[in-house]
Amino acid sequence: MTHDKSSLIVMTGATSGLGLEAARSLVERQNVHLIIGARAPERADALRTGVPTDRLTVFRLDTSSLASVHTFANAVHEKRGSRLISALGMNAGMLGGDRLQLTEAGVEQTFATNCLGHVALADQLRNALAPGAIVLMTASQSHNPADRLTKLLGYRGAIFPNAESVVRGKLDESAGPAQASRDRYATSKLCCLLWTFAMARLTQGEDIRFLAYDPGAVPATQLARNLDFSSRIGWERLLPLAVPVLSSFTTPQASGRSLARLLANPEVAPQTGQYLDHRLQAATLWPKARCTAWQNDLLNVCAGLTKS
Ligand SMILES: NC(=O)c1ccc[n+]([C@@H]2O[C@H](COP(=O)([O-])OP(=O)(O)OC[C@H]3O[C@@H](n4cnc5c(N)ncnc54)[C@H](OP(=O)(O)O)[C@@H]3O)[C@@H](O)[C@H]2O)c1
């Protein structure tokens, strides 16, 4: 299916970094109506210039809150009327600070924001997906213990004792605060992959594609906002200087454009269950992300949390 006529695309994480660039690229397309979920809707103002109001809608959404996800999903349903959603891009993400933080529901904040809220959102929009729809999670190479680049940035891969421990943020109690924060992030991204591949497996034969996106290393975004001053300066000011000489690094603009292509041009990713990088090639994957026992454990725990 091509979405040439008119595409209704729902996206999270479109107010800064590579998601903002993806959204810019999407609203430039005449045939796209974009619905954005944003914690602070005014942060989407940068997108509005020159875009007819009937092609961009912004509703409040905090992906770390299941109540907020529910309200957002209802608003999307009301707005879309009988139109079906051609793509759902779940790009919102955060890297927490040194302290373990739990949501009101007792869920570790990074996992709640990056994974659980999106799982609930996809579930609540599922019956409104068009034939051939794309459901895409933004993941990260930090999930992979063998990834050399993210090791240089202080990651050591995901830690998955079991899904319940991930939900509570109990990964490696001997880790120092900075390491623990990176562990929580990497693990939340593994969970995004486990969920994507589980859904692809469970919906084989259905006309819907579950995909994951690895944006590459994209300094200059606001992802480091909760880190200490020197890490933040490194991420926002120094590492961007290295982008032209390091092939694994890319810019928010380039990575965002690839994300937009995945969402708006379904022919780019013809099969469900793929994990694509910012060049739209197969991304390197930690084989454990395909572990069905881990996937099922995660699905069960998420189902318990989202249905309670
Ligand atoms: N930059 C990289 O190198 C890199 C590498 C791998 C993966 N990623 C992933 O790429 C995605 C985009 O990251 P980025 O680097 O562009 O970072 P960013 O500039 O910090 O953008 C993050 C986006 O997520 C939104 N967000 C965060 N928490 C949210 C919440 N609770 N509810 C709703 N929206 C929320 C932010 O909204 P606000 O405007 O309200 O803050 C923002 O739009 C994330 O999923 C990140 O994990 C990034």
Features:
binds NADP nicotinamide-adenine-dinucleotide phosphate; alpha/beta; Rossmann fold; 41% helix; 308 residues
What does this structure look like?
The protein has helices at residues 17-27, 45-48, 66-80, 109-125, 148-152, 163-168, 177-202, 229-242, 252-264, 292-307, and strands at residues 7-12, 32-38, 56-60, 85-90, 129-138, 208-214, 275-277. The termini are far apart. A 7-stranded parallel sheet has the order 3-2-1-4-5-6-7, with helices on both faces. The chain has 10 helices and 7 strands. It is globular, with a radius of gyration of 18 Å. The protein has 308 residues and is an alpha/beta fold. It has one domain (7-307): Rossmann fold, CATH 3.40.50.720. The protein binds NADP nicotinamide-adenine-dinucleotide phosphate. The site of NADP nicotinamide-adenine-dinucleotide phosphate has 29 residues, from α1.
Query: SSE order, as H and E?
Result: EHEHEHEHEHHHEHHEH
According to CATH, the homologous superfamily is NAD(P)-binding Rossmann-like Domain
Q: β content, as a range?
A: 5-15%
Average residue pLDDT: 95
Query: CATH fold name, please?
Result: Rossmann fold
N-to-C span: 36 Å
The biggest beta sheet reads:
7 strands, parallel
What oligomeric state do the depicted chains represent? single chain
Q: Which class in CATH terms?
A: Alpha Beta
- Principal-axes geometry comes out as globular
Low-confidence stretches: none
Structural class: alpha/beta
Order of strands across the main sheet = 3-2-1-4-5-6-7
What molecules are bound to this protein? NADP nicotinamide-adenine-dinucleotide phosphate
